[in-house]
Every structure is written in structure tokens, then in C-alpha cells.
Amino acid sequence: MRNKFDKQLDRLNVELIDMGQLCEVAIGKATKALEKDSEEIAKEVISADAEIDQKEKEIEQLCLKLILQQQPVAKDLRQISAALKMITDMERIGDQASDIAEIILSAEIKDTRAIPEIVKMASAASAMVRSSVMAYVNKDLDLAKKVLEADDKVDNMFDNIKHKLIEFIAKEGGNQGEDVIDFLMIAKYLERIGDHATNIAEWVEFSITGIHRSEEVI
Fold first, then answer.
1. What are the phi and psi torsion angles at 216 (to 5°)?
2. Euclidean distance between CA atoms 208 and 141, whole angstroms
């Protein structure tokens, strides 16, 4: 019985890795769509969001099956409960990548000077998502803590972009105000993606230690 349960837990890990990779692809494509001003790539991001939503449902069903059929002990229950929390954050990451794509589809961005900073921020946020999922799979507490530390860097990137955009408006006037708002919204969505990766890392800590940062203990 335990052998079967362990195999199902291994499957859960694989599914979580797959969902994390889907999120990374969505972030990457949203960034590429911005760089290339590509409606086609932006539409691919929106399609990818539906795939992420479907993956969330599949993992949720697997977790519920593990709980109802296998009667896991406390440590296993923490792992499964953390996975259920993680997929909620990953689903929202997919939503925010899709939101970025929607901005690209509806906007007519003329000024491209903020794009390199946005790309760096997207890369950092994507790396946080990847690391948080792998920390769970490998039960790596140190890696989870590195994700939490990386969130400060992503927050700083957002602040830098915001200040540069404010300086640009002050210097150039409001002629490109719509571009500034679009870039600010994209940066904000990337900051939220970093926040969700941080949430995932906190649930990884919980799955390993039994202690969440809210001080709940199981």
C-alpha cells in the first residue's frame, strides 16, 4: 500500500513540475510578445493560460484522491496540502501572464526604452517560479529560502522601473502617458508573479518543517 502511495506522490511531483514549466513558458512568451510587439505570441500566452487552468484541476483531483483513498499520515498530508496551495498560486501566475498579453494586444506601445528592464524583471520572476517548485520536489529548504530572498530583488526592480517611468513623464510630459501606464501595469503583474512564487516557497517550508510563516502548525 505504501509503495503505491509513494508512486502517486512521485506523480504529484511530476505534475507540479509540468505546471511550473507551463507558467515559465507563459511568462517567457509574454515577454517575447512585448519585445517583438507580436499579437500572435500574445495570443499563445492566453491559450497557455487555459492549459494551466486544466493542469490545476488535474492536480487538485490527484491530491483529493490521495487524501481520500490513502489516508496519509501528518507529514504526507502536509505535502499534499502544500501542493494544493501551490497550484492556486501557479494558476494565478498563469492569469497574470495572460493579463500582460492582454495589455500587449490592446496597447500600441511606441516607446521601447523600458522593455530591457521589463525583460530582466520577467527573467527574475520566472526563475523564482522554477526554484520554488523544485524546492518542493527536492524538499530543499535552502532553495525555498533563496526564493524568499529573491522576492526583494524583484520588488526593487519594480520600484526602479516605476521611478524611471515617473522621471520620464516629468521630463518628456504626457505625450506617451499611455505607454507609461502600460509598462507600469506589466511591471506590476510581474511583481505579483514574484509574490506568488514567494507564497509557493512559504508552503514548501511548511511541507518540510510543519511550520508556516503565519505560525500555523500541523
1. -80, 140
2. 7
Gyration radius of the chain over CA positions: 19
Contacts of 13 (CB under 8 A, 6+ apart): 136, 137
Over residues 104-132, the pLDDT tens digits come to 999 877 767 788 999 999 999 999 999 99
Domain that holds residue 71: 2-209
The CA distance from 211 to 209, in Å, is 5
Q: Buried b vs exposed e over 113-130: b needs ≥16 C-beta within 10 Å? A: ebbebbebbbebbbbbbb
In a domain, 214, yes or no: no
Number of domains the chain contains: 1
Helices 2-36 and 74-106, packing angle to 10 deg: 20
For the domain that residue 81 is a member of, what is the CATH number? Answer: 1.20.58.220
| Residue written as grid cell 533563496 | 146
Does 23 fall in a domain? yes
C-alpha grid cell, residue 115: 522593455
In a domain, 9, yes or no: yes
pLDDT at 73: 78
Q: Is the distance from CB of 203 to CB of 82 less than 8 angstroms?
A: yes
- Residue 69, in any domain of the structure: yes
Give yes or no for residue 153 having a pLDDT over 90.
yes
Render pLDDT for 53-90 as a digit per residue (tens, 0 to 9). 999 999 999 999 998 877 777 888 999 999 999 999 99
- Residues 29, 124 contacting (CB under 8 angstroms): no
